[in-house]
Amino acid sequence: MRRALHLSCLLSLTLGAVAPAQATTRLPVNDPDYSDQWGLDYVNAAEAWDISTGAGVMIAVIDTGVSGSGDDGLANLVSGYDFVSGDYYASDRDGNGTHVAGIINQSTQNSDGTAGLAYSAVILPIRACATIDSDGASDCDDDDLVDAVDYAVAEGVDVIQLSASGLDYSEALADAVAAAWGAGVFVVAGAGNDGSDTLTWPAAYDGVVAVGALTESLDIAGFSTVSDDLQLLAPGEDILAESFTTLRGGGNYQTRAVSGTSMAAAHVAATAALLMSEGASNQAALDAMLATTQSWWLDAPSAGGLDAAAALEHHVALREAACGGLVDDLSDDLSDVVTALANAEYYGDIIGAYNLNWASVGIETCTDEALSHAEAAESALMAYGDGDEDQLVELYEQLNEADGDIGSSRFYTSVGGSSWLVQWTEYFLEDAHDGLAPIQERVGECLELS
C-alpha cells in the first residue's frame, strides 16, 4: 500500500488486533447437484468455506443481466441497472448472466439445485450485453460497458465480473477498468473463447485479471484462449448452475451445464470475494491466488489452476504475520517517535517565539502538528489493541499525517538558518522520521491484508 505524502502544513504556511477469520459452521452441503459440481471440488470450495463464504462483499456481474426467479435462485441479489434498455430492471433475456451469477452466488444449503462458491456475497446485476452466444461471442456496446463499470464502482462493489470477450479495443473501457482497479475493485474477465493464443478484450486490459478455462480432466479447454499473458486457469467446461436460455438448450429455469471462459472467470470472481471478505485488498487477493495455484501446463506456463482454499489459507497466514503482535511490537517504537517529536516541538516553539526568520513560524507550526498526529497515532494503536479494529485505518492515517508534517518541518529547518536551535530541531526531526518509517510500513502491510 502506497503512503500518501501530506503537505497541508507546508502548503498552508507557504500560502499565508488481528481480526480472526470468519467463524463458519460448515454443515454437509445438501444441494442435490453439488456432488456434480466438479469445479467447486477442484478449487477446494468446502475447505475454503471453513474460512470464508464471502459475507460483506458485493460483486457486480456485468453481463446479459441476471434473473433470480428460478426454484434454486440466488442467495443475495439486489437491484441493478440495464444499460441496454436504460432502466433499473436488469433482468436477463439470454441466460448467460444468470448462469454466471449462479456459479458465484447460487442459493446454498437450501436442498435445491447447486451451490454457489461465494454464497454469502451480494450480486449487483448490470445488463450491458444483449446476448452472449454459445461460442462466447458478445453483443456488447463499448459505451454500455464503460457506463456499467463506472456504475459498479460508484455503487461500491468490491468485485467486477466482466463476461464479455472478443471485443475491439476501447480506450474508454481501458481507462474505466484501470480506474476501477485503482479504486480497489477486483476486475476479472474470461480470456476468450476462440481457442487462439492472444487474449481478447476486455481480458487484455491492464487492471483486468485474465482467466482461461479448464476441463474436468484438467486439460485446458479447446475453446479457451491460451496466452503468455494469462494469469489464472479455472473450471470452465460443463459448469453447473441454474439458468434458462434459448441459445443453449431452451426451456425454463433448470440446472444447466454451460462452458466458457466466463464460467472460469466466475470462479475467480467468487474466490476474490472470499478473500476480500477476509480483508484482502484487490491486489492482495490476486497475489494470494497467484501464490497458491495448483497444477501446471506446458502451453500456459504463466498460469496455474485456481485453489480457493489454499489462497485463503495463504492470505490468513500473511495477515497473522503482519498484524499479530502489532501493539506489542510497535508501542515502544512509536513512543520513541513521540518523544523525539516532543523535543523537536520544544525547540520549534522557542524558534517561533524568537522569530529568527521567515521560516520560524513554519518550524513552530509543523513540529506542533507532527507531534499532535503522532500522539493521535499512539492513541489509535492502543485502541486497536483493545479490540477496536476500525482504529487500524485511523492509525495509518495519523502516521501518514505525522510523516507529512515531519517532511514539512524539515523543509523549514533546511531554510531556517544554522543556529543551534535549528540544528537541534533538525536532529530530533530526523530521529522521528527514521523511527516512523518502519512503523508505517508494518501498519501498511497489516492494513493491506485486513
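Above is the first protein from milestone M3; the second protein from the same milestone is given next.
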Amino acid sequence: MAFKFLIHRVSNQNSNQLNYSRWLEMAGIFLGIPLFLSRMSVPHVKITSLLAVCSVCLVLILRDKTFDRNRFGFNGFRAWYMLAIRFAVIVGCFSLYTIVVDPESPRALFQHNYMSWALLMILYPVFSVIPQEIIYRAFFFHRYGSLFKEKRVSWLVNTMLFAFGHILFKNWVAIIGSFVFSLIWATTYLQSRSILTVTIEHALYGDSAFILGVGYYFYSPDF
C-alpha cells in the first residue's frame, strides 16, 4: 500500500510539473512572441517567425501519436450550409461597415495593380491562414486543451490569445475583429474537428475583407 501511495504521489507531482511547463510554454508562444515581434520593425521578420513557429508546432503534433491526423482532412464534416449562411451574413456586415463607417477606405489594397491583388488572394491563405490555424487551432487545442477543466474556457482563452497575436498590426480594429472571428473559427474547429474546414472558412473571410476594402486593418507592409 505504501509503495502504491508513493507511486501515485510521484505521478501526481510529475503531472503537475508537466502542467506548469505547459502553461509557461503557452505563455511564451502566444504572449511572449507576439509582444516581442510587435516591437520590431525589421522587414518580413513577422511572417518568417509565423512560419517558423508553425513548423515547430506541426512537428510536435505530428510526432504525438495521440493526435488524430484525420483532422488535416474534412474528417467527415458535412454541415457546409451552416458555414455558407454564416459567411453570407459576415460578408454583408463587411459591406455595411465599408459603406456606413469607412466609405473612404480603398476597395483594394493594390488599386489598379491587379497582379499584386491576385497574388494577395493566393498567398494570404497559404502563408498566413494555414500557419495560423495550425498554431492556434490544431496545436493549441491538442497540446493545451487538457489544462482547462471546461472546453468553453479553452475556447475563450484561445480566442483571446488569437486576438492578442494581432497586436502586430497596431490597430484596435484588427484586435477586436480577430477576437470576434476567432470565436467563430474556434467553434468551427471544435465542432468539425477539421483543420481543412476551418482553414477554408478563415481564408474566405480574409480574402473577402481584402476585396471589400477592410483588409488593410490586417495588413502591414513590413509583415
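Note on the second protein: The CA atoms of residues 48 and 218 lie 17 Å apart.
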